[in-house]
Design a protein that fits this description.
Elements lengths: L17 E5 L28 H13 L4 E5 L9 H8 L5 E6 L4 H10 L4 E5 L5 H8 L4 H12 L5 E7 L8 H7 L5 E7 L16 H11 L5 E4 L8 E5 L5 E5 L12 E4 L4 E3 L8 E2 L1 H5 L5 H9 L11 H4 L2 H5 L4 H4 L2
Parallel strand pairs: 1-2, 1-10, 2-3, 3-4, 4-5, 5-6, 6-9
Antiparallel strand pairs: 7-8, 8-9, 10-11, 11-12
The protein binds S-adenosylmethionine and iron/sulfur cluster.
S-adenosylmethionine binds next to β3, β5 and α12.
Length: about 325
């Protein structure tokens, strides 16, 4: 691993080696938990990073010690010059991963495999086509499901992100875990997080404790096995004894992973977010375009990183809608 330079170390000595880059604010889905029904105002194209700017800014982060880059969005694969972006990034000495809704994935699989990129996470929130349509406001379940099946024949493990919402898809927890019985999948249950315009409230939240209670009741408690997490993992990992795949819970709301956080985010319009929950951002793209050295800005952003959830260190703060609306919608952050 590259040595991490000072500029990526925050006041709590956390080393930020994982950069998540949002390639676009656009998406071919309209997930209720991610964006408001009315959509979001899109930044003008000229304000977005070009393929070369993504590469040059990423290269700087890699020089300073970033060892993993995840491409996200919006939907990263709707970006017209996706191939150019990924080919450039693949020349950097860094692990590349991607999170996608899977709609266009089949088209890009040959390219990703050619570049050795197999760390692919697909978001799918229901195993029922109709419910999926209700959540995503679009009808693509079959396309995505077929691509998941195809990917399973190619990579060792397919990661599936599932955002759980009370009364919507929480009755599918067991069905998702049942998928791991014979399949090489990892189900990643994500607690529903509050962002601008997603009508979050605690009633809709399915907490980690509840997920585990349901699984312990359905399977024998002794069969629900905790597996060791990787360093800096944001998920708590489990498997059902004897099952082929496994599952994880990402409890950013009830049990955040801030102590070991190593993540920073670059938005499609070239702003650095030091935390997913933080409302503050540091403008990098304009400075880069003006030929300024952006390393001091990055360092300042790192030093300004709060210890917990962008300063929302209590549930009361997290439940305050005013604090969500200071932040962008998830679609414009890049999850
Ligand atoms: N479009 C791609 C996708 O859906 O996989 C990548 C971008 S999406 C913003 C990245 C991840 O964030 C997805 O797995 C999505 O389910 C998750 N996400 C979006 N809004 C969320 C929310 N309010 N709470 C928890 N996870 C959320
Ligand atoms: Fe699009 Fe992903 Fe957000 Fe759904 S979660 S609206 S697929 S960016």
């Amino acid at each position: 691993m590259n040595t991490v330079s000072n500029i990526l170390i925050d006041s709590f000595k956390r080393k930020h080696t994982y950069l998540r880059i949002s390639l676009t604010e656009k998406c071919n889905l309209r997930c209720t938990y991610c964006m408001p029904a009315t959509g979001i105002p899109l930044a003008p194209r000229a304000h977005l990073m070009t393929a070369n700017e993504v590469y040059e800014i990423a290269k700087l982060f890699v020089m300073h010690g970033v060892s993993k880059i995840r491409l996200t969005g919006g939907e990263p694969l709707v970006r017209k010059d996706f191939e150019e972006v990924i080919r450039k990034l693949a020349t950097l000495n860094v692990e590349i991963a991607i999170t996608t809704n899977g709609i266009l994935l089949e088209r890009y699989l040959p390219l990703l495999l050619e570049l050795g990129i197999t760390n692919i996470t697909i978001s799918i929130d229901s195993l029922d086509a109709e419910k999926n349509q209700q959540i995503t406001r679009r009808d693509y379940f079959e396309t995505v499901w077929n691509t998941i099946k195809k990917l399973q024949t190619i990579v060792n493990e397919v990661k599936l992100n599932v955002v759980l919402m009370k009364g919507i898809n929480d009755n599918e927890i067991i069905n998702f875990v049942e998928l791991t019985r014979f399949e090489n999948v990892k189900i990643r249950f994500i607690e529903f997080m509050p962002f601008d315009g997603n009508e979050w409230n605690t009633e809709k939240l399915v907490k980690q404790t509840e997920i585990l209670e349901r699984l312990n009741t359905h399977f024998n408690t002794s069969q629900v096995i905790r597996i060791t997490d990787a360093p800096n993992d944001t998920s708590r990992n489990f498997k059902i004894q004897g099952f082929r795949g496994h599952f994880a819970i990402i409890s950013s709301v009830t049990n955040p992973f801030c102590d070991t956080c190593n993540r920073i985010r670059l938005t499609a319009d070239g702003k650095l977010k030091n935390c997913l929950f933080s409302s503050s951002e540091s403008e990098l793209l304009n400075d880069y375009r003006n030929g300024l050295d952006i390393t001091s800005k990055i360092k300042l952003a790192m030093l300004g990183k709060h210890k917990y959830r962008g300063g929302m260190d209590t549930m009361a703060k997290l439940e305050d809608p005013k604090l969500h609306s200071n932040n962008r919608s998830m679609i414009a952050i890049g999850g």
